[in-house]
Amino acid sequence: MALRNEDLKNAILAKGLIEAKALEQLIEQSKAKNISLERLLSEKNVLSEDVLFQLAGEIYEVPTVKLEDVTINDSLLPIVPYTLASHQFVIPFEQDGKTLKVALADPTNYELLNFLEKKTGLEIKPYYSPQKDIQLALKAYNRDVNQKFAKLLEGATSEARE
After folding, report:
1. Res 110: pLDDT
2. Do strands 99-104 and 90-96 pair parallel, antiparallel, or not at all (unpaired)?
3. Distance (Å, whole) CA 109 – CA 149
4. What separation, in Å, do the N-terminal and C-terminal C-alpha atoms of the chain show?
């Protein structure tokens, strides 16, 4: 889920990043193009992705994580099945004792957070990460499948030789 335009507008104005009149024009452009203000600001390079990333963390009131800077342990991936991860844009990236840190495109998805807590028995700590970053990180699931397939092929070819 993209940031709500109103929340993003208020955060931008509070920080004085864009003048009110210019921001209203950008909001009108986003409505005319039927895209979020966040996407328009990014596409037009009005605000850098880093600034939008930090604003999102502040708006959602959660820590942020850049998944490209994190090594996700393959043992964490089965905790959140690929189907759920890819539809809800959520990926577990670290476990510290009884706490599981998960990156979400929408860290206000409390229904999902509650489901994960019940399913895992762990305390779920939400972090914000942009949807496109989570989509890239989801390739780790495919890497795991490819490794298992390679092992199966290796076993099948060695059995065929015997």
Report:
1. 95
2. antiparallel
3. 34
4. 54
* DSSP SS3 for 128: strand
Q: Tokens 């502040």 correspond to what residue? A: 58
| Strands ordered across the beta sheet of 90-96 | 90-96, 99-104, 123-128
The one-letter code for the residue type at 28 is E
Greatest mean pLDDT range, 47-51, 124-128, 130-134: 124-128
What Å distances lie between residue 19 and 23, 40, 65, CA to CA? 6, 16, 29
Q: In 3-state terms, what secondary structure has residue 90?
A: strand
- 129 near 138, Cβ under 8 Å? no
Question: Measured at the alpha carbon of residue 49, what is the angle toward residues 47 and 54, in degrees to the nearest 5?
Answer: 95
Q: Is there a contact between 146 and 152 (Cβ–Cβ < 8 Å)?
A: no
d(CA 81, CA 91): 9
Which residue carries 């043992």 as its tokens?
75
pLDDT at 97 (0 to 100): 94
CB 134 within 8 A of CB 87: no
Separation CA 55–CA 42 (nearest Å): 13
Neighbours of 80 (CB within 10 A): 22
Return phi, psi of residue 53, to 5°.
Answer: -60, -50
Task: Give the C-alpha separation, 149 to 134, whole Å.
Answer: 24
